[in-house]
Design brief:
3 helices; 2 strands; 61% helix
Length: 94
């Protein structure tokens, strides 16, 4: 997916993430929704617990932002898939 692109693909039971922003670092861009969510929970916990340097806190914050964006991409893709299924089920009527 290129920066700023927006697409959702449905195939083999998968939803491809949708992106409107800059590309995520490769390790985050490859995560499933569940993987990104679980890591985000850990990042938030580490930030709330404190006890790390300012530099480490900033790195955690940036990672958390990237993870949150990845989760949002998956959710947008899932919503698009549900909307398409509803449209198909109702014969295109809104």
């Amino acid at each position: 997916m290129t920066p700023g692109s927006r697409r959702s693909e449905v195939g083999a039971g998968r939803v491809e993430a949708v992106s409107d922003g800059p590309e995520l670092e490769p390790s985050v861009a490859e995560l499933s929704y569940e993987q990104a969510r679980d890591e985000l929970v850990k990042v938030v916990g580490a930030l709330e617990q404190g006890g790390v340097s300012l530099e480490e806190s900033l790195a955690l914050w940036e990672r958390g932002e990237a993870l949150a964006q990845r989760c949002e991409q998956w959710l947008i893709g899932a919503k698009a898939r549900l909307d398409a299924a509803r449209t198909t089920a109702t014969g295109g009527a809104s």
